[in-house]
Specification:
four-stranded antiparallel beta sheet; 4 helices; 33% helix; alpha+beta; 187 residues
Length: 187
Amino acid sequence: MERMSSGQWPVGQWVSGSVGQWVGRRRSAAGVLCLALALLLALAACGGGEDTTQPPEILYGQDVCDECDMIISEEKYASAYWTAEGEARRFDDVGEMLVFMARSPEATASIWVHDINSATWLPAEEAWFVMNSGLRTPMGTGIAVLADEQSARALAFDQPEAVVLTYSEIVARAEAGELENVAGMGD
């Protein structure tokens, strides 16, 4: 800053210049903040970054089934999937999930089922399904899920009507309407 010949400082110039610079910086900072906020809101609207490579969380005794609106209470029979948009769908019985998916097809990111022996989550494509397992499932579908074929065949062994299926085979039956009339699933 220069001193004027009279010995005075050019206060008017300094104030207007400083304020102008401060206002300009503040305006650009506000713009960056607004842009960051808009991006954050856009990300939140897109599902908040849910990890669809992991099973959706189910709060047993609180969450309700997307098919029947009953409370999901038995972990070993529960199933779920993520839609391609990152929405979770939860079910109290794997048979209900399969019927729901056949009736309301939508793109999925991942599909999850529980092994009835360990209650461990499994990707549905890797699981084995036993129709007419002789087990009493929450909605009476009698469909049990196991982690391996040997366990599925052992469960089906003494059940005369039991059928061991892969995921693609049981989905084909659901799409053909064969799961609609199992116990508890009639219209």
